[in-house]
Amino acid sequence: MNIEYNQLIDRIVEHNGLDTIICESEVPDRAPIFEGHFPGNPIVPGVILIEMMAQAGGYIHMLSKDFEEMAYLATVRSAKFRNFVTPNQVLTIKSKITHHGGGYLICKAKISDAAGGVVADSELMLKLQNFANEKMREYIKNIALQAGWNGHDL
Amino acid sequence: MSKSISYDEAYEKITALILEQCDLEDLNIEKIEPHHILNADLGLDSVDFLNVIFDIESEFGISIPSEEWMNRASEQALNAEDSVFRLSNFVESVLELIEEEGTVSA
Asked: Does the annotation mark A37 as catalytic?
C-alpha cells in the first residue's frame, strides 16, 4: 500500500470476471500520514479505508471491461469502521457489485484483518466514465498489472 | 412470485427513499407532493436519482431501465404533465414494473 500515491491495493487475489473481487493490501510500517494521524499512535484514517474499498469496486468493473472506463467514487451510501487499522497489518478487501445501470454501479465491500475480523464495510456508488486520456488509462492499467492482474480475467 | 401493492403503499415507500436523498429544509418544501418533479422541485441530480433507483430496485425486487427513463425525461419539458420525473408518474411507472416482475415483501 502506497498511501502517498493513493495506490491502496497491493494484490488482486481473485476476480470472477463479473461482479466480485478479492484483494490484499499491507499497511506500511511508516508513512507521512502517521506523523499526524496520530503522533505515537498510528491509525489508518477511515477515508483511506473507504478509498481502498472504492478502488476494489472499481477494479471489478475495469478488469471485466479491459479498462474501457474509469470508476469514480460518487456516493458513500454507508460506511462503518469497526476496528482500528494500524501499520504492518495485512488486509483483505472483498467487494461485490450489487447494482449496475445508468453509468453507475453500486458495490458492497468489506475489509478484514489477518484474523478474519471485519475492520470496515461500506456500500458505495461509483460513476463509470471514459478515461480522461490514454496516459491516465495506461497508468491505472499498469497499477492493476503490478497488483497481479494478468491482462485477462483472473 | 409477484404480489400486488397499492399506489398508496408504493407512494409511501418511494417517497421515504427519495427523502433519504433530498433535504426538504434546504428546498424550502414542507412535504413531498405527487405533482413534484424529481429534479426541478426535489433537487435530485443524476447521482441522487440513481441512488433512489437502486434503492427502489432493492425494495421491490425489480429492475428499472434507468437509462431509458433518464433519456425520456431529458426529452420532455421539465414540468410536462406526463414527465417520467413527475412523482405521480414515477410511482405509476414503478408500479407497472412491480406488477410485471416484482416480489414485494409482505
From this structure: yes
Residues 6+ apart with CB under 8 A from A27: A1, A44, A85, A86, A87, A88, A89, A90, A91
Could you tell me which chain A residue has the CA closest to the CA of B61? Answer: A99
Q: Model confidence over A30-54: pLDDT tens digits?
A: 999 999 999 999 999 999 999 999 9
Q: What is the pLDDT of residues A87-98, one digit of tens each?
A: 999 999 999 999
pLDDT at residue B105, as a whole number: 55
Which residues in chain A are contacts of B58 at CB distance < 8 A? 98-99
- Sign of the C-alpha dihedral, residues A132, B70, B32, B62? negative
- In B5-44, the residues whose Cβ lies within 8 Å of chain A are none
Q: How far is B34 from chain A (nearest CA, A)?
A: 24
Closest-approach residue (CA) in chain B for A125: B51
CATH of A3-146, one of 1.20.1260.10, 3.30.1330.100, 3.10.129.10, 3.20.20.140: 3.10.129.10
For residue A123, the distance in angstroms to the closest alpha carbon of chain B comes to 11
Find, among A71, A121, A123, the residue nearest to A93 by Cα: A121
The answer to whether B60 and B104 are in contact (CB under 8 A) is: yes
Give the gap in angstroms from C-alpha A128 to the nearest C-alpha of chain B.
12
List the catalytic residue out of A37, A61, A100, A152. A37
pLDDT for residue B4 is more than 80: no
Q: Is pTM beyond 0.90 here?
A: no
- Is the ipTM higher than 0.85? The answer is no
pLDDT for the residue numbered B18: 96
